[in-house]
Known about the structure:
Number of strands: 20
Helix content: 25-40%
Structural class: alpha+beta
Number of domains: 3
Shape: globular
CATH architecture of the largest domain: Alpha-Beta Complex
CATH class of the largest domain: Alpha Beta
Radius of gyration: 25 Å
Oligomer: single chain
Number of helices: 12
CATH superfamily of the largest domain: 2-enoyl-CoA Hydratase, Chain A, domain 1
Largest sheet: 6 strands, antiparallel
Distance between the termini: 61 Å
Amino acid sequence: MLKKNFLILFATTFSGLFLNNFAEATVLNNSYKEVIDHVWQIVYRDFLDSSGTFQKSNWINLRKEVLSKTYSNNNEAYDAIRDMLSNLNDSYTRFLEPKEFNQMRIDTSGELTGVGIQIVKDKESDDLIIISPIEGTPAFDAGIKAKDKILSIDNISTEGMNIEEAVKLIRGQRGTKVKLEILRGSKSFFKILSREKIEIKSVSSKVNQTKIGLLIGYVRIKQFNANASKETRDAIKDLETKKVAGYVLDLRSNPGGLLESSIDISRHFINKGVIVSTVSKDGLKETKRGNGQALTKKPIVVLVNEGSASASEIVSGAIKDNKRGKLVGKKTFGKGLVQSMRTLVDGSGLTVTVAKYLTPNGTDINKSGIIPDLEVKMNINPILQREIGTRKDKQYRAGEKELINIINKKNQISEFNPDTINLNAFLKINKEDKVFSLN
Length: 439
């Protein structure tokens, strides 16, 4: 069980949440103001303001205002909390009712119930935006894409709707359907999705053989949950026994998850060097580095797209900035904030932004994303799920080609060995020559 105050990187409404026994055992306190004040205290103490608009003096005045009122039931208190949090201009700091808290939990098996989308509220446009559909879910199979906007849910407009309200409408009994109106660019359309029990295996892997006979280790990470690091470790160890020449790490449409999972997985590929730095609201900086226990030194290419968010951006940013490998695909989502999950006195919950993270080069990618080394668009016509990570996958094909180039360059350099006669062959030195110099 994770510790209650463990820092968790949330990409979405579904990623990396947990519920401990405290929430289930707590009896609802009759003082609704106690819950309100608990939220206020957490924000006052720990909230990191990424927008630059938060002022403690205003927050102190707001406390006086909300605690001066009388609340006769949970709903009134919860509405007051949501109104209070709306002043923060931070879509990732959110209140969760006890039932929502429990529903949004990902347990150790990585199991979800829903249609398989992650959403965020854009504070500037007030839009409900899909970060990414989870691969293999009804939303993914229906062609839902990252950055799609939800205009309505079952013909109910989402204008002015918060995430909690949207989640209530989207979720429902398994086997039932929900109709979403989607805006993509300037075009709107409807999608009818079935609500299903979704079981997620975080990592899949295989060996791909190139046209010239090279063996490529393909590793796809769908989500950074509690099992992702071990599953990735097992995949790499297996691929190493199969003598792969390099790796294609696929982080496309991976919405993120646990901060520690992204650090551990980065360490599988990066032996030494900075992986990520987190900076708190007080400016305290904590830096995570490679631990000298990388599982492979072989070349790597990382596939990213608009749905690669948060934890995915930590791994891809670490690999890029350490010059450990190349990024191929499209610019990433741009979520550089860290949330901590807090259980409140009545069993409800709060996700609060407590830090921002920086890539090894000190880059803050929040809202700007990470630009790949080689920008490649996805196929114009959608490909089947089984074709992802094959030569029918345009971005994979480009990534494989880039990896072959890296491998070839590495082999050319390794052929020059100053400790052997290769040096003489390279310099074409006559056997009678006694002395030479390299200036």
